[in-house]
Design goal:
- By secondary structure, this protein is α/β, with parallel strands linked by helices.
- The chain has one domain: Glycoside hydrolase/deacetylase (TIM Barrel), CATH 3.20.20.
- The protein is built from 10 helices and 9 strands.
- The chain has helices at about 5, 40-55, 70-80, 100-115, 130-145, 165-170, 190-205, 225-230, 245-255, 255-260; strands spanning about 20, 25, 30-40, 60, 85, 150-155, 175, 210-215, 235-240.
- The strands form 2 sheets. A 7-stranded parallel beta sheet has the order 7-6-5-4-3-9-8. Strands 1-2 form a two-stranded antiparallel sheet.
- Helix 4 (about 100-115) crosses helix 5.
- The longest helix is centred in the middle third of the chain and has 19 residues, at about 130-145.
- The chain is globular and about 50 Å long.
């Protein structure tokens, strides 16, 4: 990861030099495989836990106020699973004791954000207090469950990047925040890529970012993941996964991820240097 000045270049500069030491090739990038939806349900938590114990997943993003949030927090602390906060504005809270006002405010935000695919890029002044309340409540609940502040944040359906959250500055400054998906020229329109770059530049003013961010699927074409893993030789690369999905679980738990990665080590946690 870079300081804010380097982040503003949109990962144009390598993390560090690479070369050979003692006749063996070495690299100083990092491959982080992060599993989303820790705590959403026991099925999702257990799938992530299994992949983590196999060394195929580095870390998880925890949902709070969900049916398995309490149990998953206990597991994370007992097993020393590295988790950040997975902010949720769009999927109904399912914890039995979730406060009614919080449920109502979240439903209000979900109606706005899911109304249109571009709704998240529009700042809604009438929802300022609801966004503040829903973010603050999830931060407080994470602190209660994990006995610490989250040092890393991302969002369910990537809604942590919506205009209200960014322009209100609702994410704690200095935290590691998930950036936009990384695309090469031609994979998305110029306007789409420009918007993503502008959002990432805005993020980098207050937060730490990795160099590149991708999803684990699709698995075709075959050279897609090879290109992603190759970037991790020199850059800090986060790969998002949902092990509850059978195809992703098989890829991770079945060992294909290690075969594709070759001599590139999957980070044991979400960190800058893999130590």
């Amino acid at each position: 990861m870079r300081d804010n000045k380097s982040q503003s270049r949109n990962a144009a500069v390598p993390a560090t030099d690479s070369g050979r030491l003692g006749g063996e090739e070495f690299h100083t990038g990092l491959l982080i495989v992060n599993a989303d939806d820790w705590g959403r349900s026991s099925k999702e938590t257990d799938a992530i836990l299994d992949c983590t114990l196999r060394g195929a997943v580095s870390s998880g993003s925890a949902m709070v106020f969900m049916e398995d949030s309490e149990r998953s927090a206990v597991i994370a602390q007992e097993r020393k699973i590295d988790v950040g906060l997975h902010l949720n504005f769009t999927t109904s809270f399912t914890a039995p004791q979730c406060p009614t006002p919080l449920v109502q405010r979240q439903q209000e935000l979900a109606r706005h954000l899911l109304r249109h695919r571009l709704a998240q890029v529009v700042f809604h002044p009438g929802l300022v207090r609801s966004f503040e309340y829903v973010v603050r409540s999830q931060l407080d609940e994470f602190r209660r469950l994990y006995q610490k502040d989250p040092d890393r944040l991302d969002g369910h359906h990537h809604m942590h990047l919506c205009a209200n959250v960014l322009l209100e500055g609702l994410l704690p400054p200095g935290t590691l925040v998930r950036r936009n998906f990384s695309f090469r020229a031609g994979e998305k329109s110029f306007v789409n890529r420009l918007y993503r770059q502008l959002v990432d530049l805005l993020l980098a003013r207050r937060h730490r970012l990795v160099d590149f961010f991708f999803s684990l699927p699709p698995f075709q074409p075959l050279d897609r993941l090879q290109r992603i893993f190759s970037l991790a030789q020199q850059y800090v690369v986060e790969v998002e996964t949902h092990p509850v999905n059978p195809e992703e679980y098989e890829f991770l738990a079945g060992g294909e991820v290690f075969r594709r990665a070759g001599n590139l080590r999957i980070a044991p946690r979400f960190c800058a240097d893999g130590s």
